[in-house]
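Action item from last meeting closed. Structure (128 res):
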């Protein structure tokens, strides 16, 4: 049995089921199909993608377009997160490259040499 035969049998079963439906149900199905085809015939642009539907992007249809909270809320959260991460890294610690450059240049402040942890580190490194 090939694909054509299978498709023919499926079509026969669907047609048989359709013939058993009430006339009002058939009319509702036909009307729904027409609405779906009409909506599919007029795609609209949302974020650069074509989607099936109808109506204007600016017609108060929430959920699509650039005036929608579904667009702005994630964007604002993302930007706030990036701002917080940047400021957190600036506040909580020196840049490792700056520390290395300072060590190599010998420009450590006097407090670094007075630190007891630094002295113990020197003692340990000189034993090796």
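Sequence:
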């Amino acid at each position: 049995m090939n694909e054509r035969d299978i498709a023919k049998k499926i079509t026969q079963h669907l047609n048989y089921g359709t013939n058993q439906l009430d006339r009002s149900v058939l009319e509702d199905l036909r009307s729904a199909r027409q609405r779906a085809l009409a909506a599919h015939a007029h795609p609209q642009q949302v974020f650069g993608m074509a989607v099936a539907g109808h109506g204007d992007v600016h017609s108060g249809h929430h959920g699509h377009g650039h005036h929608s909270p579904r667009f702005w809320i994630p964007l604002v959260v993302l930007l706030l997160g990036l701002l917080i991460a940047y400021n957190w890294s600036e506040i909580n610690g020196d840049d490792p490259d700056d520390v290395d450059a300072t060590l190599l240049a010998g420009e450590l402040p006097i407090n670094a040499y007075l630190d007891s942890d630094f002295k113990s580190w020197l003692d340990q490194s000189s034993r090796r």
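Note appended to the action item: Residues 69-91 form the longest helix (23 residues).
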